[in-house]
Amino acid sequence: MATPNLIGPPPGTTPVDLAGPRRQRSIPDDLMREASRRLGILSLLAAVLWIVAPTLDHLVVRATSLPGDMRWTRLDATDLIAAVSALLSVGLYFYTRKSGRSPQFILDLGLVYMVLTGLALGLISHSAGWPRNMPIFPVISWIGVVVLMFAAIVPNSPTKTLVAGLIAVSMNPLAMLIAKARGTWDFGPVSNVLVMHYTDYLLVGVAVVISHVVTRLGQQVTKEREMGSYQLGALLGRGGMGEVYRATHRMLARPAAIKLIRPEMIGGGDGEGAKVAARRFRREAEAAANLRSPHTVELYDFGVTANGILYFVMEFLEGMDLESLIRSKGPLPAPRVIHILRQVCESLEEAHACGLVHRDIKPANIHIGRLGLRQDFVKVLDFGLVKSVADMSPEQSLATVEGLAVGTPAYMPPEAALGKTIDGRADLYALGCVAYYLLTGHLVFESANAMQMIARHLHDQPVPPSERTELPVPPELERLVLACLAKDPDDRPRSAADLGQALGAIPVEPWSEEQATEWWSLQGR
Question: What is the CATH number of domain 319-525?
């Protein structure tokens, strides 16, 4: 099978986009969702102010009135405007909190909310007019301030910001004209509406500049997130090696997951060190990409960005990792544990036959979920950071990094902790730790820090899993788990194939597809 190429065209060629001209980059969806949440918070704060400000006005009137003067208890049109504005603000807050809403629609709705807020502020500000003999002079109103706030906090395109901003600040002149028509304020020539509020129109220009800057920053983020044919979306999680994002293939619309790896995590730095790390990364990623077991996560592509970030493009999985499963649901029944372990063994069997050792088998790197019509289907993750047993040179492997212990202490075999030569039986030790965790909900060894954890793996004997759980553990399964946890690799099962066969021979009622389907349906998946 052909090895996948690095994302992007070969050197010296001109890239061709088969999808045709790309649309103009916009702000990434996750940043837009964050902006929509900020809009909700802003509207909730506005609701509080719409209630507090009129209340304080009435209290001030009461404090400055003569005894028996009950004007402070009377409600007027401004109180009604404030009440309606508070209700609209609360409604917008709850609307932004509903899942599944389009972030762009919410931001557009925010511009409408900004215009309505401007109308309310204009009507309240000019309802009483100015003192008769006070000259008209330019002022910066609250509407101008609101327009600036929205441009910075709730990003939108400069064009939309310009249109909405002009409409919003025009609410002040409109309110003045309404007051003049009602006879409550004679401010002289109609041109005075612009004399008084032209500064707000200048602030709209400032808001457009702010919006342009924010939009360009968002577009730059989008550009930086684009990797060949894939574009990054929402952040799915962070780990010790880097971050994982949801991604979409621009031409196939195929969902994927992209794992970004910091160069320093595999020994890459500046200059020659980064080139060596990139060569190691490519060679070992190519080996991982050739693994075809259905229980190994499929590697679509891989590459190195212009700024040295390494990345894998993997299939997008539905479900959860085993660590999340145990943390939320507790230990699993023995038949289900056997069902899971046998699938992991199938993945490891192929890798070990190819001379590859995973070296970081742990619950967080084992995914369980749905594949087609099958439930409880296991996928082993992070095979892009494997180690070839035929290449033990520290300069030639991602495995050996100066000052970095590869693997997870809670699942690290003794020989790896001691820096000895390892083979596939190291993965079987880690898988024994995983089995222990699935059966009991506890780690094999508990400790306060990583060094103590490693020391216990080197010297302590594990407590049998049946003594740490209330669920029944078949004796044959317990003996097999403890055999995987042997300090000496020679005392463990000889291979993943042998371990899988031994698991299949344990006399328990097999975990059925019907049981798996029922369990997942109860989880709402």
Answer: 1.10.510.10
Contact 499, 484 (CB under 8 A): yes
Q: Which amino acid is at 118?
A: G
Chain-centre distance for alpha carbon 321: 16
Name residue 140's amino acid: I
CB 501 within 8 A of CB 346: no
Pick one of 1.10.940.10, 3.40.710.10, 3.30.1490.270, 3.30.200.20 as the CATH number of 233-316.
3.30.200.20
- Euclidean distance between CA atoms 259 and 236, whole angstroms: 10
Do 319-525 and 233-316 fall under one CATH topology? no
460 part of the active site:
no
Residue 205 φ then ψ, to 5°? -60, -40
| Long-range contacts of the stretch 431-434 (C-beta < 8 A, 24+) | 431/341, 431/344, 431/345, 431/348, 431/361, 431/484, 431/499, 432/481, 432/482, 432/483, 432/484, 432/485, 432/492, 433/362, 433/485, 434/322, 434/341, 434/344, 434/361, 434/362, 434/363, 434/366
Check 200, 301, 321, 360 and give the catalytic one: 360
Among 272-281, 334-343, 439-448, 478-487, the range scoring the smallest mean pLDDT is 272-281
Helix, strand, or coil here: 388? Answer: strand
CA-CA distance, 29 to 359, in Å (whole number)? 35
- Domain coordinates of the chain in residue numbers? 29-224, 233-316, 319-525
pTM for the predicted model, two decimal places: 0.58
At 369-382, the pLDDT tens digits run: 988 888 999 999 87
